[in-house]
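Open question from group meeting: does this chain pack into something compact, or does most of it stay loose? Before anyone orders reagents, we agreed to write out a predicted structure and look at it together. Recording both the input and the output here so the notebook holds the full record.
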Amino acid sequence: MSVFKKLRDEYVISHANRIRFPKFISSTIVRKKVTFYGRVQKVGFRLEIYCISQRMKLTGWVKNLQDGSVEAELQGEESQIYFLVNCMKSLKRASVKKMTITDLPISEGEENFTIVG
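Structure tokens returned:
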């Protein structure tokens, strides 16, 4: 791992762990596929989603796509998923130009959140 990537990853983890969560009002468990377009690769975007998802106990996965976008399937309380999406849209080191959100069926028995690829 390059020195730059190691420093970036340490910064991303530190940033993600400093985010203050609001008091979430309990909401329905849902699964959403979210695709982020813009400058979202090589800026720690997947790692940030992973860290925040872990803290909120969401399940699912996140991966880079070949077209330069990042795709995530997020499962958990709807209010938490939208909080995470808004965090990602407001990241200064990335630039989300467009986003798509699709409803998916719940994935029963899923326990973790992972970075794919």
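Observations to bring back to the group:
The domain at 3-18+29-116 is CATH 3.30.70.100 (Alpha-Beta Plaits).
The helical segments are 3-18, 45-56, 78-89.
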